[in-house]
Write a structure and sequence with these properties.
Blueprint lengths: L6 E5 L4 H10 L1 E4 L11 H6 E6 L8 H6 L5 E4 L9 H6 L3 E3 L6 H17 L1 H9 L19 E4 L3 H12 L4 E4 L11 E2 L2 H7 L2 E4 L13 H7 L4 E4 L8 H9 L5 E4 L10 H4 L4 E3 L8 H19 L14 H4 L1
Parallel strand pairs: 1-2, 1-3, 3-4, 4-5, 6-7, 6-9, 7-8, 9-10, 10-11, 11-12
The structure holds NADP nicotinamide-adenine-dinucleotide phosphate.
Length: about 325
């Protein structure tokens, strides 16, 4: 007798390519409210060997793992996985995979779109035209990219793709991270405050989580100065949003372009009130091309794992688990 195809729990995600891939290769399990796993019954929970997870903010942590005694792998849709306790997963021998690389270029594009629209006020200018105001007067001149220097917080896959684009615009790049990258020519700053003091444009492409929580606060914004621009495509939690709204309102910095927020989809009223902020609803990777590639990678990781192979794109904390087992 054939054993049934492994049970895979859909958690916080529903995409046609993922649904079709899981239905083709596995036994899909859905829970009525995908933000609440307490509804998982004992025998159903015991059958689950994998989770296909959304890249959202619902935590996948020890309490969740406790309910799923036979869980082997969590395949997450997205590259950031601060909502998953990967260290705890590693301790339990559970593999976590994510979707790096396939989304890098689209996210870097959105960083540049935010940079341009913040500095040149293209959103405001378009609203000006649509309102008919152009019939009465010209849109006023704006700040410029010319003469700017760009600091990147988090020079990883996406940060480097942003750096390449910024270089193509003729602007100097420097960066901050936990370690110097000798293979990279850009100046390195170990402290984000020192980076902010050396540049006027800060682009954030670092991961979320405890280590980066509130890293960009009032002091960093003051160091950027009155021409300062902040762009964030990393995680909303990296910026102290109240401090940012204050700095935008009182002219401590000139503008901000944000694709991510601390409590999505909630956006603080104080930021909504800032005309010098360009605000996007977390669309960095949200093109058909990239979302399809991410969905395929979620399924391919699960297929590889249950075929007895290494997962394709494990997070560093759980890399090499199959070999180790
Ligand atoms: P990555 O290749 O791992 O790059 C992350 C970079 O951040 C690394 O260079 C790392 O350098 C640095 N970093 C890590 N921890 C840090 C810390 N505590 N302080 C300062 N720098 C730190 O990841 P990626 O693929 O470029 O993705 C980066 C992030 O972008 C994701 O984690 C996700 O949050 C975000 N993202 C957003 C969207 C969107 O739609 N807006 C889409 C995809 C990803 P060191 O190791 O030297 O510190």
């Amino acid at each position: 007798m054939h054993s049934p195809a492994p049970h895979v729990l859909h958690y916080g995600i529903s995409k046609p390519l993922i649904d079709a891939g899981i239905s083709q290769h596995f036994t899909p399990v859905r829970i009525p409210n995908d933000t609440d796993y307490s509804g998982l019954a004992g025998s159903e929970a015991a059958a689950i060997r994998a989770i296909a997870a959304g890249g959202g903010h619902d935590p996948i942590d020890a309490r969740f793992f406790d309910r799923l005694p036979h869980l082997e792998i969590v395949a997450s849709f997205g590259v950031g996985y601060d909502h998953i306790d990967a260290a705890e997963a590693a301790r339990r021998g559970i593999v976590v995979t994510h979707t790096p690389d396939v989304l890098t270029d689209d996210v870097a594009d959105i960083a540049l779109a935010l940079l341009l629209s913040t500095v040149r006020r293209t959103g405001e200018a378009e609203r000006f035209l649509r309102s008919g105001a152009w019939l009465a007067d010209a849109f006023p001149p704006t700040a410029s990219l010319r003469g700017r220097s760009v600091g990147i917080l988090g020079l990883g896959r996406i940060g480097k793709a942003i750096a390449r684009r910024v270089e193509a615009f003729g602007l100097p790049v420097s960066y901050c991270g936990r370690r110097n990258q000798p293979e990279v020519d850009y100046p390195y700053y170990a402290d984000v405050l020192d980076l902010a003091g050396a540049v006027d444009t800060l682009v954030i492409a670092a991961p979320g989580g405890a280590a980066t929580d509130g890293l960009v606060g009032r002091a960093v914004l003051e160091a950027l100065g009155p021409n300062g621009i902040v762009v964030n495509v990393g995680r909303g939690s990296i910026i102290d949003e109240a401090a940012l709204a204050g700095a935008l309102a009182d002219g401590t910095i000139a503008g901000a372009g944000l694709d991510v927020f601390a409590h999505e989809p909630q956006v603080p009223e104080a930021l909504l009130a800032c005309a010098n902020a360009v605000l996007l609803p977390h669309i960095g990777s949200a093109s058909h091309h990239t979302r399809d590639a991410m969905a395929r990678l979620v399924v391919d990781n699960l297929v590889a794992w249950f075929a007895g192979k290494e997962p394709l794109t494990p997070v560093p904390e759980t890399a090499g688990r199959r070999t180790a087992a």
